[in-house]
Automatic annotation (TrEMBL):
The lineage of its organism: Eukaryota, Metazoa, Chordata, Craniata, Vertebrata. Residues 285-306 have a biased composition (Polar residues). InterPro entries: CASC1_C (IPR022110), IC97/Casc1_N (IPR031826), IC97/Dnai7-like (IPR023247). The gene is DNAI7. Residues 2-184 form the IC97/Casc1 N-terminal domain. It holds the Pfam family Casc1_C. Residues 269-279 have a biased composition (Basic and acidic residues). This is Dynein axonemal intermediate chain 7. It comes from Balaenoptera acutorostrata (Common minke whale). Signal peptide: none annotated.
Length: 691
C-alpha cells in the first residue's frame, strides 16, 4: 500500500508539472521565437554580404571577370582561347586566376541557400565551371607540347634524355622525353624525388615522352548535384507549424493594400472631430501599424502612413525568411531514401569514398618534331593535330608473338603532404568512357606510410587518384562544445583515429588543432579563419571528414534521431553556446529516436577549467526539455525527473532554472552571425546522430 501511495503521489506530482508546462508553453515559445530572430537576421546579413562582394568586385576594376555574370566569364574564356604559344610557366601563372574563378562559382552554388538558387543559374554556373576546367587542361597540354618541341635542347648530358620538373602551389609537372631510345634505360626517377616509372622494353625504344601532371585539385570527378529545395519545403513552415508561405506573402500585400485604401479614403472624406479620429483611426492604426500621428487639424501625417507599412512589410519579410531558413536547415538533415546503384563492377562509389590529394594525370605522349638550328634560326615542324597520346598497349598486337609483350607499367607517386590518410590509400583510375573512377586494371599496390610513397602497376596510363573511405572518422566517439570568449566557442570531436578542435567566432571557423594517436599533428589549415562552407570544404579535402551527407547512413551505423528534433536541439544549443558547455552522453544511444540526450553546464569565458565539472543531463524531445535524475556513471537508464526541477518547452528556459544572471545576459547578447555559424557547424557534423 505504501508503494502504491508513493507511485500515486509521484504521478500526481508529474501531472501538476505537465499542467504547469502546458500553461506557460505559449509564453516560452514566444520568447524563444524572439531569440531565434537571430537566424533570419544572420541570413539577411549574408545576402547583403553577397551583394556587397559583387559591388566591391565591380569598383575594383582589376580586369578579372565576375564569374556570376555570364557575359564577363564568356568574354574571359574567348579571349584566353585566342592566346597562343603560352609556356607552361605562363599557363601556371594564369591558372591561379582560373582556379580562383572556379572556386568562386563553386562557393556561390554551395553558400547560396537552395531557396535563392534558380535552375537557370545552376546550369549557367556549372557550365562555366566545366568550360574553365576543360580550357585549363587544354592549355596545359599545349604548353607541354611547346616544352617537348625543345626536348633536344634541354637534354641531360649524362643520359642524353630530357627531364624537367616544374613546381607550383597548385600544379606540379614531371616530364621525361626518350631521345636516346636506349633499351636498357627503363627505370626513370625524377631528380630529388622518389617519383618515377618502370617502363617495358618496347617503350624504352620508342619515340615517346612520359608526363605526370599532378594537379592538386580535382577537375576530373563530375560535379555533384546542387541541393535544391523542393516546393513543399520552401512553402511550409516547419518549425512552428505548417502554414503556406504564400499566405505570408498574401498577408504582406493585403496589409499594404488595406493601408493604401485607408489612406485614399481619409483623403477623400470630410474629417470629423479629433475625438472621433482617436476612436476610429487611432484604434485601427494601433492594431495593424502602431500609433497614428494626428495633426492639429485632425489629419494623419502622410510620412507616418508611408513609414508604418514599411515596418509591417519588414516584419512579415523577416517572418517569411525565418520560416524559409528553418525549412532549409531541416533539409540539411534529410537522409536519402535509396542507396546509389552502380551498374559496373569495380566502379568507385563516390558517396562512400572521396578522392584526396588531387589527380595524377599519367600520359605516354608521342614525341613531337624537335627544334633544329639553321643559320641562326630555330626551325620546328608544328603538327596540325597538336599533342598526341601514344597508345599502349596498341589496339592491334598481331606483330608481337609473346603474350607478355606489353606488361603493366610500374608507377611511383608521393602522397600529397597536406592530406591525411588514416588507412592505406586505394588507387583508382579514371574510366573516360564510363565517366567514373574504377579500381580494376591496377595491381601490386604498395604503400610506405613513413615515406608517403605509393607504388602500383597500371595496364594502361591515364588519370589516377587516391581514395579513402569518407566515413573513416564516423561514428564519433565523443564531442564537446564550450565557450572560449565573447561570441567564440571551441568544438572538439573525438573519433577512433583523431581529435579535431574547431574554433568558431562570428561568421568564421578555424582548425585549432589535430591529434593523431594522441600526438599533435601540424596542418596547413591551422590558424586560418574561413567561412563555414569554405572551412568544411577545406577539411574534407585534407582528409578530415566529419561531415555526413544524405547518403552517409547507408555506410555508418548511426544513432538515428528525428530530423526535426535534431534541428530544434542544434538551434537552441547554438543560442546558448556563448555561456554554456555541451557534451556527449552515452545515454543518447539508449533513448528512442524522438528524444536526444546530452550534458550541459554553465561555463562562462575566462572561467578557470574545472577538473571534474558538474554536468547536468538533459533530455529534449523538440517540444519538452527536462533534467534527468541519472548521470554518466549511473548503472541503468531512466527518464525519471531530477528532484526539484520542472518541465520546460525549450532548452533556453530549462537551463534558465539553474543558470546565473550573467550567463543568461551573455546568451541574450550573442552575435547573430556567431549563433548562425555555431548552428551551421552542429547541423553539418550531426553530433547527436553520428556519435
Amino acid at each position: 500500500m505504501e508503494r502504491l501511495e508513493i507511485q500515486r503521489t509521484e504521478k500526481e506530482k508529474l501531472r501538476k508539472l505537465e499542467a504547469k508546462d502546458l500553461e506557460r508553453r505559449n509564453e516560452e515559445l514566444e520568447e524563444l521565437y524572439l531569440l531565434e530572430a537571430c537566424f533570419p537576421e544572420a541570413e539577411k546579413l549574408k545576402r547583403d554580404s553577397r551583394l556587397l562582394s559583387q559591388w566591391k568586385h565591380y569598383i575594383q576594376c582589376d580586369g578579372s571577370p565576375d564569374p556570376s555574370i555570364s557575359q564577363e566569364i564568356n568574354t574571359f574564356i574567348s579571349l584566353w582561347k585566342e592566346e597562343t604559344n603560352e609556356t607552361f610557366e605562363a599557363v601556371t601563372a594564369k591558372s591561379k586566376l582560373v582556379l580562383n574563378l572556379i572556386e568562386k562559382l563553386k562557393l556561390i552554388l554551395l553558400e547560396t541557400p537552395s531557396y535563392d538558387l534558380q535552375e537557370k543559374n545552376i546550369i549557367q554556373y556549372q557550365g562555366s565551371i566545366l568550360e574553365l576546367q576543360e580550357l585549363l587542361h587544354l592549355k596545359f597540354n599545349i604548353a607541354t607540347e611547346i616544352l617537348l618541341r625543345q626536348a633536344s635542347t634541354l637534354a641531360d648530358l649524362d643520359s642524353g634524355n630530357m627531364e624537367k620538373v616544374i613546381r607550383d602551389e597548385n600544379v606540379t609537372l614531371y616530364v621525361w622525353a626518350n631521345l636516346k631510345k636506349n633499351p636498357r634505360y627503363r627505370s626513370i626517377r625524377f631528380s630529388e624525388t622518389q617519383i618515377g616509372f618502370e617502363i617495358p622494353r618496347i617503350l624504352a625504344t620508342s619515340d615517346i615522352a612520359l608526363r605526370l601532371l599532378h594537379t592538386h585539385y580535382d577537375h576530373v570527378t563530375p560535379l555533384g548535384p546542387v541541393p535544391t529545395a523542393p516546393q513543399e519545403h520552401t512553402s511550409t513552415v516547419t518549425y512552428f507549424g505548417k502554414d503556406e508561405v504564400k499566405s505570408v506573402e498574401a498577408a504582406v500585400s493585403k496589409d499594404l493594400q488595406e493601408e493604401y485604401n485607408e489612406q485614399e479614403n481619409e483623403s477623400n472624406v470630410v474629417h470629423e472631430e479629433e475625438t472621433k479620429v482617436d476612436e476610429q483611426g487611432g484604434i485601427e492604426g494601433q492594431t495593424s501599424l502602431g500609433p497614428v500621428n494626428v495633426s492639429p487639424t485632425g489629419h494623419q501625417r502622410q510620412s507616418s502612413v508611408q513609414e508604418e507599412p514599411e515596418a509591417t512589410k519588414y516584419e512579415l519579410e523577416m517572418k517569411l525568411l525565418s520560416e524559409t531558413v528553418s525549412a532549409a536547415q531541416l533539409l540539411l538533415l534529410e537522409n536519402a531514401p535509396e542507396k546509389p546503384y552502380f551498374s559496373e563492377e569495380n566502379e568507385v562509389d563516390l558517396c562512400q569514398f572521396t578522392a584526396l590529394g588531387g589527380v595524377h594525370h599519367l600520359d605516354i605522349l608521342e614525341l613531337p618534331p624537335q627544334c633544329k638550328p639553321r643559320k641562326g634560326w630555330m626551325i620546328v615542324e608544328i603538327l596540325k593535330e597538336g599533342l598526341q597520346k601514344y597508345t599502349y598497349p596498341p589496339e592491334t598486337a598481331e606483330d608481337f608473338e609473346t603474350e607478355n609483350a606489353f606488361p603493366p607499367i610500374e608507377v611511383m607517386l608521393e602522397v600529397h603532404e597536406n592530406v591525411i590518410f588514416f588507412e592505406n590509400p586505394v588507387v583508382a583510375r579514371w574510366d573516360a568512357e564510363g565517366k567514373h573512377w574504377k579500381t580494376d586494371g591496377i595491381s601490386n599496390v604498395s604503400y610506405k606510410s613513413e615515406d608517403r610513397l605509393i607504388t602500383f602497376s597500371l595496364e594502361t596510363l591515364g588519370p589516377v587518384t587516391l581514395i579513402q573511405d569518407a566515413h573513416v572518422n564516423m561514428p564519433y566517439q565523443s564531442w564537446e562544445l564550450r565557450p572560449l570568449d565573447v561570441n567564440k566557442v571551441l568544438l572538439t570531436v573525438t573519433t577512433v583515429f583523431t581529435e579535431i578542435q574547431i574554433q568558431i567566432k562570428e561568421n568564421l571557423c578555424m582548425l585549432a588543432s589535430i591529434k593523431l594517436n594522441d600526438k599533435k599533428h601540424s596542418s596547413i589549415l591551422e590558424e586560418k579563419w574561413m567561412t563555414p562552407v569554405s572551412f568544411i570544404i577545406a577539411l574534407k579535402e585534407a582528409g578530415l571528414n566529419i561531415f555526413p551527407t544524405g547518403h552517409s547512413h547507408f555506410y555508418v551505423v548511426i544513432n538515428y534521431k528525428l530530423p526535426l528534433v535534431e534541428v530544434k536541439a542544434y538551434r537552441q544549443m547554438a543560442l546558448l553556446s556563448s555561456a554554456f558547455a555541451f557534451g556527449w552522453s552515452k545515454w543518447n544511444t539508449v533513448c528512442d529516436s524522438k528524444k536526444v540526450l546530452f550534458q550541459v553546464r554553465e561555463h562562462l569565458p575566462k572561467e578557470e577549467p574545472i577538473q571534474n565539472p558538474n554536468w547536468t543531463l538533459l533530455m529534449f524531445s523538440g517540444d519538452r526539455a527536462q533534467s534527468l535524475k541519472i548521470n554518466e556513471s549511473s548503472d541503468a537508464f531512466s527518464e525519471a525527473l531530477k528532484e526539484e526541477t520542472e518541465f520546460h518547452s525549450t532548452l533556453y528556459h530549462m537551463v534558465k532554472d539553474f543558470a546565473s544572471k550573467e550567463a543568461m545576459k551573455k546568451v541574450r547578447c550573442s552575435n547573430c552571425q556567431f549563433v548562425d555559424s555555431v548552428c551551421h557547424m552542429l547541423l553539418s557534423t550531426r553530433l547527436l546522430s553520428y556519435s
